[in-house]
Structures are given as C-alpha cells and as structure tokens.
Amino acid sequence: MASEQPKWNLSDLRRLLTGGSAGHSRERFAPAQVIYAQGDPGNAAFFVESGRVIITTVTPSGKEAVVGIRREDEFFGTRCLVGRRAGGATALTASTLVRVPVTTLRRLLREQPDFAVMFATFLVAQSISDQENLVDHLTNSAEKRLARTLLQLADRDASDASNGFHAVSTPINQAVLAKMIGTTRPRVSFFMNKFKRQGLIDYSRTGDLKVSKGLRRLLQEAS
User: Domain residues of the chain, as ranges?
Assistant: First the structure.
C-alpha cells in the first residue's frame, strides 16, 4: 500500500508562489496605492508576501465599508475565479504581493493537489470569518464590534508578557475602524477612550496601539 504523501505547510506554499514560476509575478505597492478597484475585471488573485492590504466595498448609495484586512501569507482577490471584482483593494502599508493570473491559478488547482487543498482551506476559513463578521454586525453593539475588531487586529506573536498586551502592528486610524464596524469616527473615539480608561487598550500619540486580552470579557457580557 502506497504511503500517504506529506501534506504541504506554509513554507511549501510560499516556495511555490514566490519561486518565480511561470505566470507568477512579484509586485510592490506603496501605502495607499490602489491594487484594483471595485468592478475591475477579475484577472488575478494575490498572495501577500509582506505588508497589509485593506479590502473595501462601496454600496449603491455610495457608502464605503472596510470588509477586511489581509496580512502576510493570505490570499485576496480570489473572486477572480468567478467574475469581476466585488470590492477594491488598497495597500495599507508598503506591501509585496505575488500576482497569480486566473489562468495560472486554475492550472495550479488542477495540477497541484496539495496547493488545491491549502487554497480550499483558506477559502473555507475566510468564509467562516465573513459569516462571523456578518453575525457580529447584525447582533452586537458598535462597542462590541470595535472590541472584536481590535482583538482580530492584535498580533498574537507580539505580546508584552509583563502586562498581557498584544501590539497592533497594522497602522490603522479611527476613520478606518469606523468603516470596519459600521459607525462614525466620533463613536470610535468615544469607545477607544473608554477602553483606555478601563485598561483594556493602550495607545500613544505616535499611533502605537496595544490590546489587552481582557477585552474579550466585554464580548462575553450580555448586551
């Protein structure tokens, strides 16, 4: 009986996508540079090698919402497999991306079973996250939505052991946070100041932001 082939890990995925294979290209974007706009043809997916990318959508009434932030080792633009862009993508920080044309992506899905499994796993995980965000918007207050978003943005591997805080390395302002949780900037400012007084977050005038795991207790409280 043939032995089972070892499953890929993240290093295997990075090696495939950053190794200069035919069809792949590495592209660099400056902060605030548009990667693609809503409604553009879906001709490629992207893999984040470094940096942060913000994903937005504009409603028919003209209201803009931030639907997510993609970081290292994550895909975005995967809707290219089915049609035009449902939203826009902009570099939040200086970012290096691997552009994978849709024809190349389809070939990889056919010819690389391990890649196909990892890619499908990413799509399922992202779908679960999107569903959780939708439930959050429908059932939670703006205060709890902000708390959940801050916890999601916190870097789990960048903690201060002395006080249990996790740094948020993604540079993000209150206007973006307001678009992410569907409220106004003054409301975000009010809640941020409240969280700081309660010792749940810490931030400086230079923009450094840290989030305490104690913020999770707020999410567990009855509305």
Answer: 10-137, 140-220
